[in-house]
Amino acid sequence: MTTETIAKLLPLEALHRRLGAELASLDGLATVPTSYGSVGEEHAALARGCGLVDHSFRDRLALTGEDRQRFLNGLVTCDVKSLAPGAGTYGFFTGPQGKILTDVAVLAREDALWLELPPGRGGPIAGHLAKYVISDRVEIAQFDGVLPLTLAGPRAAEVLGMALAPDAAASLPATAWEQIHATVLGVEATVVRRADMRTSAWTLWVAAEEAGPLFEGLLALPLVRPAGFTALEMLRVEAGIPRYGEDYGGDNFPQETGLETAVSYTKGCYLGQEVVARIHYRGQVNKLLRGLVFAGPAPRRGTALLAEGREAGAVGTAVDSIALGRPIGLAILHRRAADPGTLLEIAGDGQAEVRELPFVPQ
Q1: 203 touches 194 (CB < 8 A)
Q2: Cα dist from 165 to 106, 160, 205, whole Å
Q3: Which residues in the chain come in under a pLDDT of 50?
C-alpha cells in the first residue's frame, strides 16, 4: 500500500477521516482505510468480537438481460446457471488456457446478477465479458449505486440480530452467499452471508446515500468497532486465504490457490474448462499454496524463495501476526519445496519455514 493520490476514491472517505482513519492507496487501484488508530483492537474485534468493514473499495458489476445466467455460466468456474434469486456463489473467471483472470462473488437477484470483484478488475472483466456477447440478451454495467458494508467476527450475527427486526433476525441466511432483504436500523438492505473470510461475516448492500448513516448507526451498537485494511489483511493471512493480485494472479491455475471449492467439476463447459478439468483429473498441480513463518522481519512481496539454491516461489502477502506473535506470510510454492517444515532461503537474506494452512483455524 502507498499513500499516493489515486483516481478512484473511497465513497465514504470523509466519514472515515472523521472517525480518525488513516487512508492509503491499495496497489494504486483504490483507497482504503488502513487503521482507525489501533490495529491490535481492530484485529481483536475481527477475531473475537465484531468488526465493521467498508468493502466499497472492491469493484462491482451488474449483469441484466434474459440470458445473463447462461451467459456468465460459460465464463466462470462456479455454477451460476442453477442459481435461484437470493442465492449466490464464488468462483474464478478463467481464460482460454485455464489461468485465472480474477476471482468473483456472484449474487443472483430477481432481475440481475451482482458481481463483486477485486479492486481494479471491474473494467477489465467488463471488457472481457463484452467480447463474448454475440446474440446474447445481456447488458453489462458498472454498479456503484449500492455499497457493501460488512460485519465480521464471531459475534457478527449477534450484532446483526440487534439491528434487525426479530422476524428478520430469525431468518438470517444459513448458506454461503445466500441473501435476504431486511431493514437494518431503518435502512433497506440486502443481507448476504459471506464465505470468503473464514469467520462469521455478513455484508449489507445498501443504497450509496444510506451507507454513511448506516455505518455510523452500526458503530453505535455494543461490541462493534471499525476495522481497517491492515487488520483485515492480518486476519486473512492467519486464516490462509490468498488474495488476487497479491498472492496469485494471471499466471496461476485455480487449483494452485487452495480455493478449489470455487471450481465446479460437474457444471459443464466454460472458457478454460478443459485445462482446469485435465489438471483436476490428473490428480495434482506443480504448485501449492502454503504458509511461511519468517525467521526475521517480513520480506517484501515478490521476494524470491529458494530451495537448495533453486527458486521455488516468491513471497506473497507478509504480515506481522498478532495471533502468532511473529511475521508470517503466504506463497505459492513448487511442489518440491512445499512440504511443511521445509526451510527456504529468502533471496538477499533470511529464512522461512513452510507451514500448513490455516495458521489459525476458525
Answers
A1: yes
A2: 27, 10, 17
A3: 2-7
